[in-house]
Specification:
This protein is of the alpha/beta class. It has two domains: 186 residues, inorganic pyrophosphatase (n-terminal core) (Alpha-Beta Complex); 122 residues, Roll (Diaminopimelate Epimerase, Chain A, domain 1). It is 38% helix and 17% strand. It is built from eleven helices and eleven strands. The chain has a six-stranded mixed β-sheet. It has a five-stranded parallel β-sheet with strand order 2-1-3-4-5, with helices on one face. Helix 4 packs antiparallel against helix 5 and helix 4 packs across helix 6. One of its GO terms (molecular function) is nucleic acid binding. This is Phosphoesterase, DHH family protein. It comes from Companilactobacillus tucceti DSM 20183.
Length: 317
C-alpha cells in the first residue's frame, strides 16, 4: 500500500503549490524543498510550483528562492519540508493557503497541517522525498532532482557518518548515483570553507571549554566574528568541529546574534540533548538540536545542564 497516497491525491487537486522549509536552511531543508519542486514540476507541467524562504548566502550554489506574492497563497496548496514546528517555517504566510501539508523527519512535537507525513527513522527529509517519489506511480526520480536530494542526505548524515544513516539511506543514495549525479562535486562543495572559516576553527579550539565529563562549550561572539570578517551564517560552519576531539562527548556552541541574544547549536555522540533544547525555545533531533538563549547567563545555565546530561548518561552505560 502506498503510504503517500493521500498526499499525492491532494497534490493533484491544486494548480498552484508553494513549498516552504525552515529558517536558516541547511542542505536538507533546501534539498528536500527543491527536489520535491522539480519532481512535481516534471510530473505536472501545467501546475505552478514555487519555493519560498530567505536565500542562504552560503548555500546559493545549491538553491535560490522564488519571489512569492501574497496573492500566490490564495487557493494554493502549501507544503513544508524539514520543519518541525510552525515558528520555524521561513515564511509567516505558510497558513494563508487553502491546504497545508507537513513532510518531516524531526520528532513530531507540533503536528500541524491538514495532512502530514513524519518519519523520525528517516535520515533526512530528502530521504523521505526520495521514498515519496519511489512509492508514487505518478512521479519519476530525475537526475536533476536526485542532485538536490543527495545533497540533503549528505548534509543531514554528515557524509554518512551519523547514526541516522541506515541501510535504506545507502540504498536511496545508490539510486541517485545510478542516475549519474556528480556526487564528488557535491561533496567537495559541502567540504569547502573560506580562509576566515578555517581561522575560526582554530579560534574555536582555543575558546573551547571541556568539562571532565566530556561536555564542551564555545561562544562565538561579535568581537570574534568581526575580527575574522565572518557573519553568523558562516560561523555555523564550525558546529561539528568540537566533535572531532576524542575527549568531547556532547557540546554546545553559542553564536551571538544581531540583537545580542544567542543561537545555540547542540550536538552529541550519545546523550539525548533535544529535551534540553526544548527547554530553551528550541528542539530537533535527539543528537542534533538548536535552541536560543537571551544572554550569556542562560548559555552558562545550558552548559551546566549539558554537563549533568553527559554525566548521567555515562553513569547509565
Amino acid at each position: 500500500m502506498n503510504k503517500f497516497a493521500d498526499i499525492i491525491e491532494t497534490i493533484k487537486k491544486y494548480d498552484r503549490i508553494i513549498i516552504l522549509r525552515h529558517q536558516n536552511p541547511d542542505p536538507d531543508a533546501l534539498g528536500s524543498q527543491k527536489g520535491l519542486a522539480l519532481t512535481l514540476q516534471a510530473a505536472f507541467p501545467q501546475k505552478t510550483i514555487l519555493i519560498g524562504g530567505q536565500n542562504a548566502e552560503g548555500l546559493k550554489w545549491l538553491s535560490t528562492m522564488d519571489h512569492i506574492k501574497n496573492d500566490d497563497f490564495k487557493g494554493a496548496l502549501v507544503i513544508t519540508t524539514d520543519t518541525a514546528n510552525t515558528p520555524r517555517v521561513d515564511d509567516d504566510r505558510y497558513d494563508q493557503g487553502d491546504f497545508l501539508i507537513k513532510i518531516d523527519h524531526h520528532p513530531n512535537d507540533e503536528a500541524y497541517g491538514d495532512q502530514l507525513y513524519v518519519n523520525t527513522d528517516a535520515s533526512s527529509s530528502s530521504e523521505i522525498i526520495a521514498d515519496f517519489i519511489e512509492d508514487c506511480d505518478d512521479l519519476t526520480l530525475t537526475k536533476e532532482a536526485a542532485y538536490y536530494l543527495y545533497a540533503g542526505i549528505v548534509g543531514d548524515t554528515g557524509r554518512f557518518m551519523y547514526p541516522s544513516t541506515t541501510e535504506h539511506t545507502m540504498c536511496v543514495a545508490g539510486r541517485f548515483l545510478a542516475l549519474g549525479i556528480d556526487a564528488a562535486g557535491i561533496n567537495q562543495k559541502m567540504n569547502e570553507i573560506t580562509l576566515q572559516q578555517a581561522k575560526l576553527q582554530g579560534e574555536l579550539f582555543d575558546r573551547l571549554k571541556v568539562d571532565e565529563s566530556g561536555a564542551a562549550m564555545a561562544v562565538i561572539d561579535d568581537d570574534l566574528m568581526n575580527k575574522l570578517g565572518i557573519n553568523q551564517e558562516q560561523a555555523n560552519s564550525v558546529v561539528s568541529t568540537p566533535g572531532r576531539l576524542g575527549e568531547v562527548f556532547a557540546w554546545l556552541e553559542a553564536v551571538q546574534k544581531h540583537d545580542d541574544t544567542y543561537r545555540i547549536h547542540l550536538r552529541s555522540k550519545g546523550p539525548v540533548i533535544n529535551e534540553l533544547a526544548k527547554e530553551h525555545d528550541g528542539g530537533g533531533h535527539p543528537l542534533a538540536s538548536g535552541a536560543n538563549a537571551k544572554d550569556l547567563e542562560e548559555v552558562d545555565q545550558m552548559y551546566n545542564k549539558l554537563i549533568k546530561i553527559v554525566t548521567d548518561f555515562k553513569k547509565g552505560e
